[in-house]
Amino acid sequence: MNKTATVILLSTLSASAGLLAAEASTSRYSLSLATFENADSDIDGGGELGRRSYLLGARADWQLDKRWGLGVSLGYDKLDWDFSDLPGNSVADRVFAASQFDSAQRYSASISLRYNLNRHWSLMLTPQLQYAYSDEVSSSDAESYGVIAGAIHRFNSGNMLGFGIAYLNDISEVRTVPYLLIDWQLSDRWRVGNPFQAGFTGPAGIEFSYRISPDMELGLGASHRTERILVGENEQTLELTEVSSFARLGWQLGQGFNLNAYVGYFINPELELSEPEIKRELDNYLAGAVHLSYRF
What we know:
296 residues; mainly beta; 14-stranded antiparallel β-barrel; Porin; single chain; 16 strands
């Protein structure tokens, strides 16, 4: 079993990104660096899979005037998947083994446009573009694009609740994903919010957090996650879907720096090869992460 180091939240730049984050100030910029590693997981029918990822992100938010806001985010992820001991007893086994890869790249970009209808309601529209492909194939067929729309209500208390729909034209598959937008202060110490941004990796998820001290916070959350990577010609993809549950311990280090450590448990993971369609279930597994961000 590999030592652990970081969970999925790492396609995001902060736990309160997007519409919820940008309303707090006239402008904000952030940079993030994360590393992720999971324990080796047994594959149904034979073999193991271990994963390690390194994720870089940058985001900028501007409140243009009283009604309009704009956000831009960029991301680059290096994905290492370590397949081992895959069997070759049948044709399906050999085809599945041939789709394995050692390393993949993922590039992403999005633009968020926000409009305040009044002091209580805001609308958001976010076009997204992503390229995710293994090192063995060309990036030319790895394009995915989509758009996310959302509406959110700000209560007099400052709490926010809304809903959204993500239309995602992923590699060789179109998905429509509903999601909940929430930022709710339950008490002086307890809060519930979204740990992710909705997008190609899934809906925004939900996290309950407890403020231990002014500089330290404990969170517990869960979400459905998807990773879809181009691995062959004719839009052949390998997709991993799973439900993640995680615990987070966060520190505000001062000078704009925040450090979060995660321990996660991934439930019902499944690998699916698109052409031909071959599915393999994985055992549940542990994972861990470290996420460092800087805001200025």
